[in-house]
Write a structure and sequence with these properties.
By secondary structure, the protein is an alpha/beta fold. It has one domain: TIM Barrel (Alpha-Beta Barrel). The protein has 14 helices and 7 strands. Helix 4 links the parallel strand 1 and strand 2 (126-132). Helix 5 (134-143) packs across helix 7, helix 7 (173-197) runs parallel beside helix 9 (224-233) and helix 11 (274-280) packs parallel to helix 12 (299-313).
Length: 343
């Protein structure tokens, strides 16, 4: 595993090969990270679209997590720092996974990470938090039960657990809503703290906008009210992202009243183009770059992808992958993205 010192030296070497050259050619003077983001959110002219990308670090302490995020931002010159959240939601203290109580923040380590990132950035760029939606948090807690511990880590086993969770919703709706209520209230508490720290929003990952998790009616009955409350709490933040981790067309219009400032989905996994999403949503769109095969992409490949996405999205566009890029991406592979932006 690459340690932080090796990562920084390799990243610096990779970044040094980048030739600074204008790709956008609007005539606009060079903007700061924050100016570029602000203008793109308003659909105004920019020197180039803002961009961001990210992957998981899974470090044991807030200081190490913050150091990794800051090093990544400095190596690749990202316009927005998305602070990954790899801290675990606290499990039930009883033998029933759904017997949860609201807590002041389920992720105190993440709050400490946000504080350190804020201090390290010192106003250089906006930073945002990361949260799972209440459904995904519940699914993780459900899957952590002892009866699933011996199952193989396969797609088939995961599908069986999803099916089992759907059966739990139908057979024990009281337990399901008890869990979702506690998770949602805890999430709202955490959001309040993150906003006080200075986060400009949160990427909230909605996992179950796909039929394998349940029908559209199931989503509306078991999940939607809780997701709505989370986005209501974030409606006053400029950079909150509705991240539709999985998405099928039947679910697209379910989120129009969420008041999410930015929307993101994976073109690669959903088969839904940026142009099609633009037909449904007017807010800024984040995405367009292939996160699945990211390691195989050249700078020219990424350039073609974000340029096509920008043409489809219009001026309210931020270049990014559809989700996090592979954690084992090398510094040279990661450097292709800023190269593709002309940095």
């Amino acid at each position: 595993m690459m340690n932080r010192r090796n990562f920084l030296s390799s990243a610096a070497a990779a970044a040094s090969t980048v030739v600074a050259r204008p790709l956008w050619g609007t005539g606009t003077s060079k903007l700061s990270h924050q100016e570029r983001v602000d203008r793109a959110l308003r659909g105004q002219e920019v020197d180039r679209p803002p961009f961001t990308f990210y992957h998981h670090y899974k470090r044991p302490t807030a200081q190490q997590e913050a150091d990794e995020h800051l090093a990544f931002h400095r190596a690749y010159n990202t316009d927005i720092v998305k602070v990954m959240n790899d801290f675990d939601y606290p499990k039930s203290t009883t033998d029933k996974w759904y017997e949860l109580k609201p807590v002041d923040s389920p992720y105190p380590g993440q709050l400490a990470t946000l504080q350190r990132v804020r201090d390290g950035l010192d106003g250089d760029a906006y930073f945002i938090d990361t949260l799972y939606g209440p459904y995904m948090t519940a699914m993780i807690l459900y899957q952590s039960q002892a009866r699933f511990a011996s199952l193989p880590k396969s797609d088939e086993a995961k599908d069986e657990q999803i099916k089992s969770l759907r059966e739990f919703q139908q057979q024990n709706p009281e337990g399901w809503h008890r869990a979702l209520e506690a998770i949602t209230q805890s999430t709202l508490n955490h959001i309040r703290h993150a906003k006080a720290i200075g986060a400009s929003g949160t990427l909230v990952s909605v996992f179950n906008a796909e039929s394998k998790f349940g029908s559209v009616e199931d989503y509306q009955k078991y999940t939607r009210p809780y997701d709505q409350r989370v986005f209501q709490a974030l409606a006053d933040t400029p950079l909150t992202v509705l991240h539709l981790h999985y998405l099928e067309r039947a679910y697209i219009d379910l989120f129009k009243d969420f008041r999410a400032p930015i929307i993101q989905h994976s073109v690669k996994t959903s088969g839904i183009s940026i142009a099609e999403m633009r037909q449904h949503y007017t807010q800024p769109i984040l995405g367009g770059v292939d996160e699945i095969d990211f390691r195989k992409l050249t700078a020219a490949d990424i350039g073609r992808q974000w340029t096509a996405a920008r043409e489809q999205a219009g001026a309210k566009y931020i270049a990014a992958p559809g989700c996090s890029v592979p954690d084992d991406s090398t510094p040279a592979e990661l450097a292709h993205f800023p190269q593709a932006m002309g940095i």
